[in-house]
Amino acid sequence: MKKIVLLVSVLLLWVGQAWALTYSGSLSSAPNGGLYATSFWATSSSFSWDVSYSDQTGLWTYDYTWTGLTKALSHIIVQVSDTFDEINIYDGTTASYELDNFVPGSSNPGIPDDIYGLKFETSGDPTTYDFTIVTDRAPMWGNVYAKDGVENVGNGNNKIDVYAYNTGFALVPPVFDPFTGVSLLSEPTFAPNVVQYGPVFTSTTGVNYGWALVPDTVNGGGGGGGQFVVPEPGTFILVGAGLVGLALLRRKQGR
Questions:
Q1: 31 vs 50: CA distance, rounded Å
Q2: pLDDT digit string, tens, across residues 147-200
Q3: C-alpha–C-alpha distance, residues 109 and 150, integer Å
Q4: Mutual angle of helices 2-15 and 233-254, in 10-degree steps
Q5: pTM of the predicted model, to two decimals?
Q6: In the chain, what are the domain boundaries?
Q7: Residue 57: CB partners within 8 Å, gap ≥ 6?
């Protein structure tokens, strides 16, 4: 009977504790760092993240940091899945955002393709910019694009746009499982059935491609392909009660 009481105590203690999933990573413009950047940012830029899930709120918090020494950041766009909407944005999200589909053009020079995402405008021309997205959406591998102004070359008549984006932007990203943190490389140019934690992946040709963790569909993982299911505390209680009941029944039959 003492063993049963101990089992119940351990289960209740465990259930009472809040727990969280956390994933951290970064891209950089260093060789094979997963980030393509021009001009001043070519050797001095990075994009990092800390993504965490709270079982108490059921929400994901995406804390991002952009660093681009020498040249300041004008705006940055973080991709979200195409079913993402305003109702998926919660308190704690950095206020200066715009949710839209952004296309190549003068406002986003050098961007490889359209991107549906959250655009954050900066103020004060920061070289380091921290921002946060709080949402009910689990993470997937996705795209990011950052922009500043232009670099004047020579006598000022030649101008180079200053921007950066992840090197896997134009490819199908790997599938990310938010429950295990494992990524399966799904792009045909990659070696098949390779499991890796990312965020920079090496193709069979030796070329490196990078993605960032960004908000996915409500069910989580891999651009809508996965399910994110976290057992609730009540589930553990029911399982524990069932085990205790079975133990008591066997004890009674043994007598």
A1: 22
A2: 997 776 656 567 788 999 999 998 888 888 787 777 776 655 665 445 555 688
A3: 10
A4: 170
A5: 0.78
A6: 20-231
A7: none
User: 111: which 2 tokens?
Assistant: 């961007």
Task: Give every strand in the sheet of 195-196, ordered side by side.
Answer: 175-176, 183-184, 195-196
Structure tokens at 31: 């060789």
Rg of the chain over Cα atoms, rounded to whole angstroms, equals: 23
What's the rounded Cα separation, in Å, for the pair 65 and 74? 14
**CA angle, 95 then 119 then 122, to 5°:** 60
pLDDT value, residue 213: 94
* DSSP 8-state secondary structure symbol assigned to residue 55: T
What letter would DSSP give residue 14?
H
What pLDDT, on a 0 to 100 scale, did the predictor assign at position 231?
A: 45
- In angstroms, the CA 104 to CA 115 distance is 9
Q: Copy the structure tokens of residue 254.
A: 């043994």
What residues contact 189, with CB distance under 8 A and at least 6 apart? Answer: 171, 203, 204, 205
List, as one string, the DSSP characters of 232-244.
-HHHHHHHHHHHH
